[in-house]
From TrEMBL:
PANTHER family: BETA-HEXOSAMINIDASE, BETA-HEXOSAMINIDASE-RELATED. This is beta-N-acetylhexosaminidase. Residues 1-20 form the signal peptide. Its EC number is 3.2.1.52. The lineage of its organism: Bacteria, Bacillati, Actinomycetota, Coriobacteriia, Coriobacteriales. It comes from Thermophilibacter provencensis. It catalyses: Hydrolysis of terminal non-reducing N-acetyl-D-hexosamine residues in N-acetyl-beta-D-hexosaminides.
């Protein structure tokens, strides 16, 4: 009976997705409102300057090539200043760049802010996303400014897992149904269903202008008192791993890059890393047997990003440092043992587990020392950015280490955006 009910729900979700795609495709292309705040209106009227012709390129820009050779990547990295390279290491909320209360449009103020801090990407939340036309224009303008300023496309990101983590699905401005919790998807045992759900999400996100979705959740919900029960596909690796692999394929076919999260697996931890440190007492052998298997499945499917969580694993690392700041987890385990060659990104460095561990000026330095490529949403962008520059100036971080991550970022942008 559960199987039949689940399949009926599957048909309803996919049917709703097809209707939503048709609705999005038919939306008018009216101008979005000026950039707004729910605490007042902020003026950031889109620029009236004519757009560049297809042949016009900013100084030093390289035309993205789907088959970009390494030499082109190296040439681009060599052309960048240290400040430009360090800025590429951050993906942040739009407000962290512009300083407005809640950003809902991208115009001259956004362009000016990106000229001062050409970050690698922006992550948007429900408050930034009012409706289809407004979102498409905001993201299109932001991408155009980023390319004109840096010669690189921007990562335009969102958390869209479905269920309790959904910024577009279920938002009344978009006419797209929420696909529901991944625990229900996992309960069907149907990997094709998981694929279709991810492809549906990727399709509507790509239409809006997003190119990165921080999903799927690869955590195993094996703690009944944990916070991941509804977000995880299930309580065992046998359930979760094939669902994660299917969703990596689905997001790719839907047109967006995706990220398996939260390495090395926070589903068994008690507590919430938004509030403070979380711990697992498991050994390396124990997590190899379960928690790592969904990430291995994602890596086998060429997942573009892996997001490292803030889980402390003292029986593996020998200390209480969160995984996002641990070279034993990031470099030794994920990069070397599991062989992941894509982009390693932290979970939000504005969470309590991060801010309780480090002062603001170290929230970029310590993850980079551990081997992370991209620092996500530090509590204070300017402090974290300056902290990295200071670490390079002092020799604590080398420019070669910065180049290593920037090269991966540029390669991904040239080949996959």
């Amino acid at each position: 009976m559960l199987r039949n009910a689940s399949m009926t729900r599957r048909d309803a979700v996919i049917s709703a997705g097809a209707l939503a795609a048709l609705a999005l495709a038919g939306c008018s292309q009216e101008k979005a409102p000026a950039e707004q705040s729910n605490q007042g209106v902020v003026s950031d009227v889109p620029s009236t300057e004519p757009e560049d012709t297809p042949s016009a390129e900013p100084d030093g820009a390289l035309q993205p090539d789907p088959e970009a050779p390494v030499s082109e990547v190296d040439e681009k990295v060599a052309s960048m200043t240290l400040e430009q390279k360090v800025a590429q290491l951050f993906i942040v909320r739009p407000e962290a760049v512009t300083g407005v209360s809640v950003q809902t449009a991208a115009g001259d103020a956004t362009r000016t802010a990106l000229e001062q801090m050409p970050v690698g990407g922006i992550c948007y939340f429900a408050a930034n996303l009012l409706d289809t036309d407004q979102t498409r224009e905001m993201l299109s303008n932001t991408m155009r400014y980023g390319e004109e300023i840096s010669g690189l496309p921007m990562f335009l990101c969102v958390d869209e897992e479905g269920g309790t983590v959904s910024r577009v699905g279920g938002n009344p401005g978009f006419g797209v149904d929420n696909v529901g919790d991944m625990c229900d998807v996992g309960a069907t045992g149907d990997t094709e269903y998981a694929y279709e759900v991810a492809k549906h999400i990727g399709t509507y996100l790509e239409y809006l202008g997003f190119n990165v979705d921080f999903a799927p959740d690869a955590d195993i919900a094996n703690n009944p008192n944990g916070t991941m029960g509804r977000r995880s596909f299930g309580a065992t690796a046998d359930v979760v791993a094939p669902m994660v692999a299917a969703q990596v394929r689905g997001f790719a076919d839907g047109g967006v890059l995706c990220s398996a999260k939260h390495f090395p697996g926070i589903g068994g931890a008690a507590g919430d890393s938004h509030d403070g440190r979380i711990y697992s007492e498991k050994t390396l052998d124990e997590i190899r047997a379960e928690e790592l298997r969904p990430f291995e499945a994602a890596i086998e499917e060429d997942v573009p990003f892996v997001m490292v969580g803030h889980l402390s694993v003292p029986n593996i690392t020998g200390d209480n440092d969160p995984a996002s700041m641990s070279s034993e987890i990031v470099t030794d385990l994920l990069r070397n043992d599991l062989g992941f060659q894509g982009l390693i990104i932290t979970d939000s460095m504005g969470m309590g587990a991060a801010t309780d561990s480090l002062p603001a000026e170290r929230l970029g330095v310590e993850p980079l020392k551990a081997g992370v490529d991209i620092v996500l949403m530090p509590a204070d962008l300017q402090a974290a950015y300056q902290g990295v520059l200071d670490a390079v100036a002092s020799g604590e971080l080398t420019e070669e280490r910065i180049d290593e991550s920037v090269r991966r970022i540029v390669k991904t942008k040239f080949e996959r955006l």
